[in-house]
Amino acid sequence: MLKNLTIEGTAKLLKDKKISAFEIANSYIKEIKESKKLNCFITISEEVAFDAAKKTDARISENKKIGLLDGVPLAYKDLFCTNNILTTASSKILSNFTPTYESTVTANCKSQGAVVLGKLNCDEFAMGSTNKTSFYGPVINPWKSSDKDDELVPGGSSGGSAAAVAADLCVASLGTDTGGSIRQPASFTGLVGLKPTYGRVSRWGTVAFASSLDQAGPISKTVEDAAILLEAISGHDNKDSTSSLKANEQFYANLNSSVKGLKIGVPKEYMSDDLPEEIQNFWNDGKKILAKNGAEIVEISLPSTSTALPAYYIIAPAEASSNLSRYDGVKYGLRVQEKNLIDMYESTRSEGFGNEVKRRIMIGTYVLSSGYYDAYYIKAQKIRSIIKNDFDSAFKNVDAIFTPATPNTAFPINREEVDPVQNYLNDIFTVPANLAGLPAISIPFGLDNSGLPIGMQLITNSFEEQMLLNIAKNLQDTLNFNVQPTQWWK
């Protein structure tokens, strides 16, 4: 098995003709089949992968132009529609849905020569932060605590996307981030997770959760790989009305690790006695590293931070209740036959959706209903504007913001769920960037006393991904975090 390949490393191996793309793809497919215990993959697209790999090998042998991702084994969160490949959103209601079209994001990867290994398990319709709400069962984190043998959550909703990269079942992956669903699982699995600016990456062909918040992005082993993937998937798309008109950028070519002269903000509202000491210590270490490398650390205020989570859990379910109304058993997906149309609607949606999805649909429908729309939904949107204004004010004085990525490390899958709101608190540090539409990245900082990864987060102003990646690279190069989980699952 090829160990711990990066996109950069794969490209070099292929360029030097030390190995073929077909051999790389075959090695990864074999590894995926031997690692089913982790439950990362819903669908393995073996034939599609081999066909793409053979085309890469032909281009290389004929000295033709090579794409950014040529021959690189990737896998996609099962929210991205893929032509003739099952796309389920990890839900029973779409368990028989095979699209006849390709999402813009995956089409962009295909045009750059990516080898698609398959579709990755996630929380149902991206609703969750544990990957336990999937119809196909939970994904298991490749990391284990050094003092307990419990199987751990990989985070969510892009849990399969993170676990697959951490377990070396693909070189990198794509996930989606609505309230932290790329950054939180990246933090739980010791990886780099990047949420781009809202509009930087097209949403067309991606199963919608909350349309004003959803954004696709990379999960990778290095900042360099994140830059390559972002460059490949971003750009204007006429099929997405929210897609930015900004020209695409060469994020990888323009990478540098200098932070000299930059002002890095640390929000005082994120400092809490409830934050675990180990996370607080790594946060302090990060401030010292940035200061030593030439940045100025500035305390800032984001006064509306405490309102972000409640606002998010009104806006996101409201948009979900609207988006998920299309799943009715009429046009596609699951259909439960009944004696009349209304009963068919009710039975299909009752059987097709899991409990968490039903919970959020009901919350969303309630806050949009007559008499409650102004009291809840409109008020939440006003709070969202205030949160965006807080960030705008902060970015007048600083270039980036540095915070923890999560309030905890990975926890046991079998942890009893007394109150679903406790799981929602996993997103407390990540949600504000989604509400404001800002780019943010989680990078691994080290291990806690139980040997589990801890990530830290950087946030920059809209469309400042290059600066975001540069600062992240500075931290990455200084920290040199290079620890992988032991392969206990094999």
Overview of the structural elements:
The chain folds into two domains: 7-260 and 410-425 and 438-479, Amidase signature (AS) enzymes; 305-379, no CATH class. 37% of the residues lie in helices and 12% in strands. It has helices spanning 7-15, 21-33, 46-61, 104-111, 159-166, 183-189, 223-233, 277-292, 305-323, 341-352, 355-368, 373-394, 420-424, 431-436, 465-479; strands at residues 41-44, 73-77, 115-120, 172-176, 192-195, 216-220, 263-267, 296-300, 400-404, 440-447, 453-460. The protein has an eleven-stranded mixed β-sheet with strand order 1-3-2-4-6-5-10-11-9-7-8, sandwiched between helices. The mean pLDDT is 96.
Task: List key phrases describing it.
single chain; 490 residues; alpha/beta; 11 strands
Domain tally: 2
Shape: globular
Q: What would CATH call the class of the largest domain? A: Alpha Beta
Cα end-to-end separation:
13 Å
By CATH, the superfamily of the largest domain comes out as: Amidase signature (AS) domain
Helical content stands at: 25-40%
- Spell out the helices and strands N to C: HHEHEHEHEHEEHEHEHHHHEHHEEH
Strand order of the largest sheet: 1-3-2-4-6-5-10-11-9-7-8
Which CATH-level-2 architecture of the largest domain?
Answer: Alpha-Beta Complex
Mean pLDDT: 96
Low confidence ranges: none
Per-chain topology:
Elements: H1 7-15, H2 21-33, E1 41-44, H3 46-61, E2 73-77, H4 104-111, E3 115-120, H5 159-166, E4 172-176, H6 183-189, E5 192-195, E6 216-220, H7 223-233, E7 263-267, H8 277-292, E8 296-300, H9 305-323, H10 341-352, H11 355-368, H12 373-394, E9 400-404, H13 420-424, H14 431-436, E10 440-447, E11 453-460, H15 465-479
Parallel strand pairs: 2-3, 2-4, 7-8, 7-9
Antiparallel strand pairs: 1-3, 4-6, 5-6, 5-10, 9-11, 10-11
Helix pairs in contact: 2-3, 5-6, 7-15, 9-11, 9-12
